[in-house]
Amino acid sequence: MSATGERLSPLGMLARLVSFDTESDKSNLALIDSVCAYLDGWGIPYLRLPNAVGDKAAVLATVGPMVDGGVVLSGHTDVVPVAGQAWSSDPFTLRVADGRAYGRGAVDMKGFDALALALVPDMLAAGLKRPIHILLSYDEETTCLGSMDGIARFGVDLPRPGAVIVGEPTGMEVADAHKSIVTCLTTVHGHEAHSARPALGANAVTAACDLVAGLNRIADLMIERGDPSGRFDPAATTVHVGTINGGTARNILAKVCRFHWEYRSLPDLDPGEIPRLFAAEVERVTRERLNRYGAFGRIETLEEVDIPGLAPEPGSEAERLCLRLAGRNRTVAVPYATEAGQFQAAGIPTVVCGPGDIAQAHQPDEFITLDAFGQGERFLRKLIEAYAS
Fold this sequence. Notes:
Elements: H1 10-18, H2 29-41, E1 46-50, E2 57-63, E3 71-76, E4 95-97, E5 100-102, H3 110-118, H4 120-126, E6 132-137, H5 148-151, E7 163-166, E8 174-178, E9 180-189, H6 204-225, E10 238-246, E11 256-265, H7 273-290, E12 298-307, H8 317-326, E13 331-334, H9 340-345, E14 350-352, E15 367-369, H10 370-388
Parallel strand pairs: 3-6, 3-7, 7-14, 8-13
Antiparallel strand pairs: 1-2, 2-6, 4-5, 5-15, 9-11, 9-12, 10-11
Helix pairs in contact: 1-3, 3-10, 6-7
């Protein structure tokens, strides 16, 4: 074991990670530099995986022997913005009070990251027989693409793990399922004309409103179909329109209107169904509304984000491992998306299991209770013991 390694308590490591403002629209490189220096101190091999622009990076470290069958502890380093939120103290200075640790990212999910990093010396001292990989990503809060370069290395120039634990807050319940997310930007192109002569143009706002109504009908169809598994809340695939913007004046047919929308699908939904239903709405609105008086307009949809869901894999190594370590006898489903589906798509058994309550995430005065933080630490200590035997 390196004599130069820096020892930090889990809470001390959390304070360090929280101190870096890693909102998703900002660089995380200062945090990654700090993590890499810490790993260097303990002689831990790692890969630094920058994005294409070079302003963000993931890090993938391996503690223990370079053999197949290890476990990945996966966490993200980015956090959601604090702008407009009423915090009681500096969101980037960890504050411990009343049995809670407050700070942006304390629960989502620098708490899990801090536990994994703080226990590196214990992993080394345990003499692991199988490796523990630590993958810290970026952009999970926006695209979930920051883990992809790391995932691609497993089974290529790194050993192939047997299980992945994504440490999003589940209260240490073992989640084996979550919905997928697809986000889209639809742009309606019309043709400007005086509102007194509507036949001379095409109103992009009116056509966009028809499309939003169509999405509402698709949402109602999904609600009517429900969730046959009975595991999800809300109990259906959801369709949502978040923003809409268009037009220049009340008496001008709008030239352009854009709206952002998303759908969060149950794991068993045909991934092509909602795009097909929406395409039919686009064809109808283009014909009946936008180009009623001539070939004035067109409609474009750009898929911005596609985050795969997590489907149950009963009896998988990840499920069995986490149920045993967490002392649970059943799995749960969670309503939010994670990077877990990407690991599963790469053929690696994956579950979501981490300390804290997701209800505290993205809130002003975000916190993790010290009890929950301690539960996460005990879980990882049991993991270290299991992989050393």
